[in-house]
């Protein structure tokens, strides 16, 4: 029996101090939904409402047909009765208990018949075997966070709420933990809401994106489609760009290159160790895409794609424009100078060649 929620709906209003959260979300109850937005936009407040930690929240929350809040009917399911696992920025472990005891604490809250994540599964997934008898103060920040994630999993949540779980870690520790998060999402079918400020984490982990601003939902949808929209703040600044799902087509050991195929094209990247057929996500920043009228000859750039201009928009500087391109089914963004746009007569429908100067692999 698969008990994973298939839909999550949250219609919520919360007023606290001068801030008000007012959202109406209908989300797929599968995969990772990134909650993204500037500081103070209400990301944590949204998670707290879903977890039942904001008693004043009004509205309705339904997770896979199970109602957790319906203020019109006076229904408020208390936090400990909602099947959520909450992972905070700081691991919040019990310092007087060993890792094993911390994990047991999470698991014992759940009756045996309702357990969906087994002890061995969580310990293995987060690689905690060697750490079980340690005290939390003898763990690194990254290890502590792995324990916190395992503890949340062992409560067998229907919904995993992660509030900037990597924000307190330095770049090296972050890079250590990301593969664990990826594995977790690949191997366990637990819907996850993942709050993050970091575009690279979102690009790597998320399937869906919710953009919050001033307590309201600016946009939500599938990650690739949402990142390719020119009317959202994600299209501006240095981080703007798309995420593309691809598969390894072939390796070229002579030139130390790997060819990746995706809907509508191929790109070459540095030699990968994974086998042909392996799926990889990569990011193409808008700033790394330039446009040409013809297929360039005599260039060192090997990643050239035939594209059709879909849409043009103002960029964040008057010197640039943003161009949404259709690479035979895959959306790509380009940020080019206004001068180049005029010289190439870039307009919707025009056929061009996109030169991709750099591809950022997400793993
Ligand atoms: N208990 C509270 N009482 C009054 N105002 C609060 C309370 N908690 C949060 N706020 C306010 O609500 C707004 C949203 O806060 P929230 O923590 O949800 O934002 P956020 O998007 O998670 O921000 P950050 O990225 O900085 O963590 C902020 O303006 C904050 O000051």
TrEMBL record:
Domain ABC transporter: start-end pairs: 5-239
Protein name per UniProt: Molybdenum ABC transporter ATP-binding protein
Keywords annotated in UniProt: ATP-binding, Cell inner membrane, Cell membrane, Membrane, Molybdenum, Nucleotide-binding, Translocase, Transport
SUPFAM superfamilies per the UniProt record, alphabetical: MOP-like, P-loop containing nucleoside triphosphate hydrolases
A GO-annotated cellular component: membrane
Record flagged with keyword Translocase: yes
Domain Mop, first and last residues per copy: 298-363
Domain of life (superkingdom): Bacteria
A molecular function (GO) term: ATP binding
PANTHER family: ABC TRANSPORTER I FAMILY MEMBER 10 (PTHR43514), MOLYBDENUM IMPORT ATP-BINDING PROTEIN MODC 2 (PTHR43514:SF10)
Organism: Stutzerimonas marianensis
Pfam families for this protein: ABC_tran, TOBE
């Amino acid at each position: 029996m698969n008990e994973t929620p298939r839909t999550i709906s949250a219609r919520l209003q919360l007023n606290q101090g001068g801030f008000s959260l007012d959202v109406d979300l209908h989300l797929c109850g599968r995969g990772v939904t990134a909650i993204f937005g500037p500081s103070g936009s209400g990301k944590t407040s949204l998670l707290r409402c879903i977890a039942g930690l904001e008693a004043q929240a009004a509205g309705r929350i339904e997770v896979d047909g199970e109602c957790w809040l319906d203020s019109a009917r006076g229904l408020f399911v208390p936090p400990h009765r909602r099947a959520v696992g909450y992972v905070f920025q700081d691991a919040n472990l019990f310092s007087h208990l060993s890792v094993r005891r911390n994990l047991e604490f999470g698991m014992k809250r759940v009756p045996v018949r309702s357990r969906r994540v087994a002890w061995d599964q969580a310990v293995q997934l987060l690689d905690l075997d060697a750490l079980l008898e340690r005290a939390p103060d003898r763990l690194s920040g990254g290890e502590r966070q792995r324990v916190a994630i395992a503890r949340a999993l062992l409560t067998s949540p229907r919904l995993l709420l992660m509030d900037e779980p990597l924000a307190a870690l330095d770049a090296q520790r972050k890079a250590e933990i990301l593969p664990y998060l990826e594995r977790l999402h690949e191997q366990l079918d637990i819907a996850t809401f993942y709050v993050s400020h970091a575009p690279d984490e979102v690009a790597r982990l998320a399937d869906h994106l919710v953009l919050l601003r001033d307590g309201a939902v600016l946009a939500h949808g599938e990650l690739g489609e949402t990142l390719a929209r020119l009317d959202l703040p994600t299209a501006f600044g240095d981080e703007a760009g798309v995420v593309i799902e691809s598969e390894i087509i072939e390796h070229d050991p002579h030139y130390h290159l790997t060819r990746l195929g995706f809907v509508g094209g191929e790109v070459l990247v540095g030699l990968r160790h994974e086998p042909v057929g392996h799926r990889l996500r990569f990011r193409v920043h808008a700033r790394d895409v330039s446009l040409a009228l013809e297929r360039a000859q005599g260039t060192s750039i090997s990643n050239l794609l035939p594209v059709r201009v879909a849409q043009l928009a103002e960029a964040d500087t008057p010197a640039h424009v943003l161009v949404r391109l259709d690479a035979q089914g895959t959306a790509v963004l380009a940020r080019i100078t206004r001068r180049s746009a005029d010289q190439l007569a870039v307009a919707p429908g025009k056929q061009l060649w996109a030169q991709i100067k750099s591809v950022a692999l997400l793993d």
